[in-house]
Each structure stands twice: as structure tokens, then as C-alpha cells.
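Researcher: Sequence recovery benchmark, item below. Answer with residues only.
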């Protein structure tokens, strides 16, 4: 992705937090499918299989030990978290996954599909994990839609990052938007099925409850379309995870297309999603995240991508609210 909150999320990610604090807001349950791109695996470990001497190999389920790989679903349209460059999926998440693979003695193989289909594909067995700046929240954990209706079994999350929602506008801020509250009566663009879409919906209700006009929310299949809408002036602002918005403002048209306004809000954890029946894999991933935090690898990866403000001190399972 060029620069897309709490990538991605639903119901309260944000896919968004910030590259400074990439976080998340709200949450929508992910449904659907649609694999598109396979990068053939991250630059992970050299030792895989039953004879691996990696420190955490024995914690993995035997099926994954035998395969030597962890199949990871993602939506590679969300720079700097995960995006495609030269035919390969790169970014914060693939680099963290490669480091986890070193500790676990297996290789992460990423396949890109639609964001809103990742959890469904995970629970159908297509992937072992989904890792795509997904906001960890109770709604996703329990498999509920935004009205509390049961849609599926839900997933477990291994939290590895923090991010929040941010508003970005055209460079120069022609409409003088300074916060999400300023979007009452305005048109805003967002990626469908993300927590930041839910953040806009919640704000729109606050607008009408306060006697103001609702926000005209335009939701798109991918974040690139939302960005294009803002750039053309069709929407006065876009909403995204903070780190993604910051990366977008820094890089699009050499830094001349967009700017981020206001502070990030509703910061929350991004998590690696795992099928609820695969507790052993969940615990192995938690141990691996803690291992790369402790040895300093985690910090180096985040600094490489300018995402240091999203760092956590310790992994958690289902730490989202």
C-alpha cells in the first residue's frame, strides 16, 4: 500500500495508529476472501524443519514444524506497514515476521488479499495467521459485527504494536481542518472495513447529536482510492492509522500532496490474528515477540521504518478492548 490504519481494522484500525504510534480505532469484523499476491516468503530463517535448533522451535505445533513455514495473510497496500515493492511484500510487518521466524525456526510466507477477507480466510484454514496492521479488539476476538451480532468464531490476537487514528488533508489544508471534529458537514474518504471507518461513523453521530450535519463518508475498497479522492479535492480529508498517514504525508508527491492535522486518537494494539483452536501457535508467537523485544531486534526494525512511537514493552494475548 502506498500509505494506508489500524490499517486496517474494523469497529473502533483504526488499521491506524501511528508510525509514530500506529494505532487503531474501532473495529469491523473482517469477512470475505480474495488472495492476490504471494511474495514467496520473507527473508526468514535458514534452518527450518524438524531439526531446527532455533530457540523457540519446540513451542510450535508439529504441523508447522513439519512444514517449516507459517502461512500469513495480509493486505499489502498499507505502507509503511506492509506494501509491495519490486514484486515483493515489504514493510514493518514482514520485517517483524522475519525476525519472529528466526526465533521460531520457520519462515513466514506472506500472501496478499483483500483486507476485509483476512479473518474469514484465516478461519477457513487458508492461512496460519493474519498479519496486516489489524487492530485487536473485543469485536474481532468474539466474531461480532458492529451491532453485536455473532458472525463467526472470532480470533485470538498476539499484540505487537500500538497505533491510533489520524486525519490527513491536502497540502496547505485549504479547508482548515484541524481535527476529526471539524469534519461535521464535510466529505471524508476512508478504506472500507477498517477501524478508522468506524471512527468516522462514530464522529458523524456525535455531529448530528450535537445539532450539526453528519459526515458524508465515502468508503473505498482500498486506501489508495481514498487517498486519490482527497488529492483530487473530492473529499476534504482522509482518515487512517497515524503511522500510515504520517508516511503518506512524507512520501506522496515528494511530500507535497498531503499533511496530517491534529493529534492521533483512539490508540490501540495491532495484533497477529490466530485461529482460536490454535492456542499452541498463539503462545509460540507471544514468546517470539517477547524474544525480539528483549534482544533489541524489534526496536531496530521499528526505527528502520520510522515507526518507533508504536513500540510496546511486552507482547500480550487479546489485549485489545
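Model:
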Amino acid at each position: 500500500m502506498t500509505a494506508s490504519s489500524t490499517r486496517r481494522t474494523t469497529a473502533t484500525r483504526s488499521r491506524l495508529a501511528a508510525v509514530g504510534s500506529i494505532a487503531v480505532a474501532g473495529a469491523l469484523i473482517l469477512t470475505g476472501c480474495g488472495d492476490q499476491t504471494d511474495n514467496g516468503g520473507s527473508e526468514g530463517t535458514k534452518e527450518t524443519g524438524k531439526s531446527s535448533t532455533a530457540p523457540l522451535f519446540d513451542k510450535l505445533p508439529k504441523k508447522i514444524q513439519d512444514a517449516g513455514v507459517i502461512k500469513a495473510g495480509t493486505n499489502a497496500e498499507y505502507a509503511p506497514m506492509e506494501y509491495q515493492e519490486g514484486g515483493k511484500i515489504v514493510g514493518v510487518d514482514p520485517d517483524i515476521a522475519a525476525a519472529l521466524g528466526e526465533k521460531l525456526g520457520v519462515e513466514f510466507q506472506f500472501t496478499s488479499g483483500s483486507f476485509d477477507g483476512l479473518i474469514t480466510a484465516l478461519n477457513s484454514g487458508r492461512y496460519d495467521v493474519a498479519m496486516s496492521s489489524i487492530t485487536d479488539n473485543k469485536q474481532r476476538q468474539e466474531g461480532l459485527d458492529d451491532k453485536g451480532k455473532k458472525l463467526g468464531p472470532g480470533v485470538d490476537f498476539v499484540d505487537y504494536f500500538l497505533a491510533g487514528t489520524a486525519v490527513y488533508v491536502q497540502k496547505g489544508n485549504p479547508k482548515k481542518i484541524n481535527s476529526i471534529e471539524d469534519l461535521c458537514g464535510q466529505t471524508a474518504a476512508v478504506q472500507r472495513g477498517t477501524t478508522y471507518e468506524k471512527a468516522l461513523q462514530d464522529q458523524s453521530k456525535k455531529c448530528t447529536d450535537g445539532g450539526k450535519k453528519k459526515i458524508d463518508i465515502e468508503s473505498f475498497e482500498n486506501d489508495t482510492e481514498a487517498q486519490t479522492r482527497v488529492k483530487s479535492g473530492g473529499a476534504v480529508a482522509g482518515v487512517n492509522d497515524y503511522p500510515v498517514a504520517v508516511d503518506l504525508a512524507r512520501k506522496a508527491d515528494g511530500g507535497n500532496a498531503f499533511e496530517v492535522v491534529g493529534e492521533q486518537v483512539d490508540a490501540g494494539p495491532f495484533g497477529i490474528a490466530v485461529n482460536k483452536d490454535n492456542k499452541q501457535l498463539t503462545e509460540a508467537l507471544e514468546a517470539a515477540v517477547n524474544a525480539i523485544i528483549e534482544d533489541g531486534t524489534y526496536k531496530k526494525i521499528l526505527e528502520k521504518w520510522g515507526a518507533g512511537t508504536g513500540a510496546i514493552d511486552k507482547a500480550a494475548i487479546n489485549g485489545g478492548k
